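Lab channel / #folding
Pinned by the channel admin:
"Please post every new chain as: sequence first, then the structure tokens as a reply. Keep commentary short and put observations after the output so the thread stays searchable."

First post following the new format, from NK:
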Amino acid sequence: MSITIYSKPDCVQCDATYQALNQRNIPYQIIDLTENQQALATIHTMGYQQVPVVVAGTQHWSGFRPDKINALSENL
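Reply from TO:
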């Protein structure tokens, strides 16, 4: 499963998400929304206004969600 995190610099919830994924050895890709306007438009189309936005397969969510990250680690 491919995991993409849409984030921005100096984001506490983004950093917490990276740390939680790293602790579980879950690989992910980061897209910096300050450098990619197309990605920013994509997450706005999805209805999100807050980062991080995590897209994991068909699932997606916004903010630091330990419950969702735990579920990912159980399904890998």
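NK: The chain is about 40% helix and 20% strand.
TO: also worth noting, Strands lie at 3-7, 29-32, 53-56, 59-62.
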